[in-house]
Each structure stands twice: as structure tokens, then as C-alpha cells.
Amino acid sequence: MDTTTFRGARQSLQLPIGQVTLEGNLDVPPDASGVVLFAHGSGSSRHSPRNRFVAGRLQERGLATLLIDLLTSEEEAVDARTAHLRFDIGLLAERLVLATNWLAEASSTRGLKVGYFGASTGGGAALVAAAERPDAVGAVVSRGGRPDLAGPALLRVKAPTLLIVGGDDEPVITMNQEALAQLRCEKRLDIVPGASHLFEDPGTLDQVARLAGQWFQDHLSRDEADA
Q: Of the CATH numbers 3.40.50.1820, 3.60.15.10, 3.90.380.10, 3.30.70.660, which one belongs to the domain with range 3-221?
């Protein structure tokens, strides 16, 4: 039985994405007001404790979440040796777009506005994907991300974008400031004092979850409220 027909279901998925199948975890709270697709960063996966923590907080706010591995297990094995696929922003963005298409067709998420939560290189991929699907993507949040890797796509992003950077992550702060200047959409840069790149310092990830949750609530439910 296809459990995606019932909101409130939690399931592990195998998503056919183009020529590959990706592993994912989908959580859909009752009466979800939007769905957030996570774009993991360098060398990370759907098992990332930081992204799972944020996903849990978003679910508490009534948002569905989809955490997927953007690389197959075979590709991850190659990337562990070469570290080049994690920087293939075009490939990662293409898979995010295909996952977005899947969400639009799944009965448990059909009709929900999609948000992207990107971390590290996933932040760049999320912005490229958002530029490709402006009709479907209602908001983007980047945590310690590399929005600079989105390149010219930054100028085409229409989704309201929140960039969150740790106060101790100075090189990434500069990259985010430069990317912010190029964005032509509603945008904001929040710097979390005392936070490192991975937001491992006590309380800093809570701030990320709070900022992201409010951003997604404000922007993913807006269209629904205006309908």
C-alpha cells in the first residue's frame, strides 16, 4: 500500500530520480502547511544529526520534510575518494529539481509549496534548483552554505532566501555577503554569534531551527492563505 496517500505518515523511500534511485526519509505531519526538501552538504547524508534536528523542529511547526541522499551509495564511495561529486552543483541541483517534481506528484505532498534547506555545498545547489523551478519553490534557507557556488543562477532566484552563517565562520560570512548582494529576491543574512561552521556550539543549532522555521512558515503558507 502506498502510505504517501495518508498525511501524518513517516516512511523511508526509494525515489526514482532520473537514471538513479535515491534513498530518502519523508515525514508529513497532519495538515502540513508546506514541505521542506533538505540539500545536504559536503560528505553528508540524510542521516546528518544536524539536519535531522532541524527537520524535527520544522515538523513541530507543521511542515513536512524530505531528507534524501543526493548521491547513490556507489557515487558516495567514489566521492569519499575524490571529493568531486559533492561540488558538482549542476548534478545536485538537477536531482533536487527531480525530487521537487516527485513531491508535486506524491499524494501526501501534492499541492504543498516546497522549500529548500541547504547546508554547505547544498546551499549552492538549492539556489540553482530554486532558479530552475520558481513556480514550485516558495522559500530557501541556507545553513553555513556556499551560495557563491550558485554562480549566475543567483540573479534568477525568485524564492525568498535566508542565509544563516556562524559568527565564527569568517570566510563563509564573506562568501554569503557577496552572494546576498547578487540576489534579486526577498533576502536576509542572519549571523549567529559564537557559532562555528557546523553550528556545534551549544544553542546555536536551536537558533538555526528557529530562524528557518519562521522563514518557512512565513513564506510557504503565504500562497495557501492568499488562495
A: 3.40.50.1820
